[in-house]
Design a protein that fits this description.
By secondary structure, the protein is of the alpha/beta class. It is about 35% helix and about 15% strand. The protein contains 22 helices and 16 strands.
């Protein structure tokens, strides 16, 4: 089926807008390709240093010209999603040897867990960790001894950072290697209920701890559809994962087989063979449009509205909020995964998952079918699912029907006619709201403001019983320049409690919310941020505000607000301690949230 005319229009304007920076980027990548295999240019001493620790592969590296695979890993065993990566380098080495190649761990990148730092000082490093990861990936590959690379990462900032780093070495093929979700534990809605009970003082910390441990109980990605699992979806829609591999659980035979195939596939795409496919050719304008379609169709994390812009910039592609807005208006919501529904990602995968959704969207002309991918030419590969047959990995056609229409819906019967994310614009600035999990009766909130400069102030006001009616909670000086733009997800249980009492409640902030947030309407990523003197800096307690997710507006209703002096804040406490001292250059250089909160330019 032909690509929908409106989707093609968005794509064409991105191509036109990006012409200059994209051409310059591709020119650099072609020049790097023309230099030939990097190892050939190293001195004998340099090569000896590079191969000295390669054990049984040392002689082959020194005397043969077969492909050498660089492994960039975000392994640590504090993140459940990344703990399975401990075993992956050996699987990848053995797979590379099986096709005559070699593999070396090129380097590691940091990986932090937003679930651990939520509501803590460390969260103010979280967004900037994306740029540190990109830089660390660049350092890992800077030795220039690799013909292809695989990237081991899953969670919130890690995949976007690795994509940025991979594009810096865009002349190399790149395959992204997932670890898969943990098996299902305590249902996410039950976990959320206990959190709300604890916030209301109805249960003690022992009940809360028991619920959390039952939910987060083993290796693998958290099973709700937050930023980590949205990242995995994007890697399939954009052609960087093997088809159907995102949501296969860890430590299973098929997971290991997929990991091994990643090594073989990456080496097969190198310039040493006949199927050269560098990552710069995969991540083109169409691939990013496909990623935005996937984001809207699945009701993914709002964090990707920032990350996709920054990821695209790394390849010379310019995305704007209007691109996301227009795609959201065009693409219907086809998935209900917590917090947008009761199912987790394991249920989603079993119901047909990404393969079914990609098939539906392709059939409706809502994806570009002709993109390059690590699986070959064309996104149709991603309607298939991997299976083990006689111990060998193969792919077969995926289901063409939803196996649970409460979780994944056909295009003919969407859960809602537009995407799960909505752009907001008005006299309070621009922002975004995730509407896929917000009940329709809460799509319009008009209420007086209560203004805070810190999320701890909000929690103190809640505990003091100060919220007694309809309210729009404004938390400002949370933007990237102010304090690194932390997520404010720890406010969700108390705001949900107020909503449950019958109050109309919303959050407005220049900060972020977790990809797991949903049921309380939240206008986030508000630009300009308060530190830049945006309208949010002029609001005071009692000012009437209106958040309208139906019309996409965010307005100050009170008169004379912009005639005041803007508020200021002492941010000293947010600039020191828990590593924040080291990030002053990032706060000074970072751009606006709607521009990807990017530290790097073109």
């Amino acid at each position: 089926m032909a690509v929908h005319s409106k989707l093609q229009h968005v794509t064409d304007r991105i191509i036109e807008r990006s012409e200059g920076p994209r051409a310059a980027y591709l020119s650099r990548m072609r020049a790097a390709t023309n230099k030939g295999p990097s190892r050939a240019h190293l001195s004998c001493s340099g090569q000896a240093h590079a191969y000295a620790g390669a054990g049984p592969d040392q002689q082959k590296l020194a005397t043969e010209s077969n492909g050498n695979l660089g492994i960039v890993t975000a392994y640590n065993d504090m993140l459940s999603a990344h703990q399975p990566f401990e075993r992956f380098p050996q699987i990848l080495r053995e797979a590379a040897r099986s096709v005559g190649g070699t593999a070396q761990v090129a380097g590691g990148v940091p990986a932090m867990c937003d679930g651990v730092t939520q509501g803590e000082a460390g969260m103010e490093l979280s967004l900037f960790s994306r740029d540190v990861i990109a830089m660390a990936a660049g350092v890992a590959l800077s030795h220039n001894v690799f013909d292809a690379a695989v990237f081991l990462g899953v969670c919130d900032k890690i995949v976007p950072g690795l994509v940025i780093g991979a594009q810096t070495f865009g002349h190399l093929p790149a395959v992204f290697v997932p670890a898969g979700p943990m098996t299902s534990g305590l249902a996410n809605d039950e976990k959320a209920k206990v959190r709300q009970q604890f916030a209301a003082g109805e249960v003690g910390r022992d009940k809360l701890m028991a619920a959390e441990m039952a939910a987060y109980h083993g290796p693998g990605t958290c099973t709700f559809y937050g930023t980590a699992n949205t990242n995995q979806m994007l890697m399939e829609f954009m052609g960087l994962h093997l088809p159907g591999s995102s949501f296969v659980t860890p430590n299973t035979d098929i997971r290991d087989a997929l990991t091994a195939e990643c090594a073989r596939r990456a080496l097969s795409l190198s310039a040493l063979g006949n199927n050269y496919t560098p990552v710069c050719d995969i991540l083109d304008e169409k691939a990013f449009v496909n990623g935005m379609v996937g984001l809207m169709a699945t009701g993914g994390s709002t964090n990707l509205l920032i990350h996709l812009v920054a990821m695209a910039r790394a390849g010379g592609i310019v995305l704007t909020p209007d691109d996301f807005s227009d795609i959201s208006d065009l693409v219907p919501l086809l998935a209900r995964v917590y917090p947008n529904g009761l199912a987790d990602v394991n249920h989603f995968h079993a119901a047909g998952g990404l393969g079914f959704l990609i098939g539906e969207l392709l059939g409706g002309g809502l994806l570009h079918p002709d993109t390059k991918t690590v699986a070959g030419e064309g996104l149709e590969h991603y309607t298939q699912e991997p299976v083990l047959k006689g111990g060998e990995l193969t792919w077969r056609p995926g289901t063409k029907e939803s196996l649970n229409t409460k979780i994944v819906s056909p295009l003919s019967e969407p859960f809602q006619k537009t995407g799960g994310l909505k752009r907001l614009k008005g006299s309070l600035g621009t922002g975004v709201i995730k509407v896929s999990a917000v009940a329709p009766e809460y799509h319009v909130i008009e209420a007086p403001a209560r203004v805070f400069h810190d999320q701890d102030e909000v929690k103190a006001a809640f505990k003091a019983g100060e919220f007694t009616g309809d309210v729009i909670v404004v938390v400002r000086f949370q933007g990237p320049k102010a304090n690194g733009m932390p997520e404010l997800h720890s406010l969700t249980p108390m705001l949900a409690n107020l909503q449950a009492k019958g109050h109309k409640v919303a959050l407005v902030t220049d900060g972020r919310m977790s990809g797991a947030s949903g049921k309380v309407p939240a206008a986030i990523h508000v630009c300009p941020e308060a530190l830049d003197g945006g309208p949010i800096a002029y609001v005071r307690d009692g000012d009437m505000l209106r958040l309208d997710a139906t019309t996409g507006t965010l307005d100050i209703l009170s008169e004379g607000v912009m005639e005041r002096d803007p508020a200021t804040a002492d941010l000293t406490e947010s600039h020191y301690g828990t590593g924040r001292d080291l990030f002053a250059p990032f706060r000074a250089a970072v751009g606006a949230a709607e521009d990807g909160a990017a530290v790097f330019g073109w």
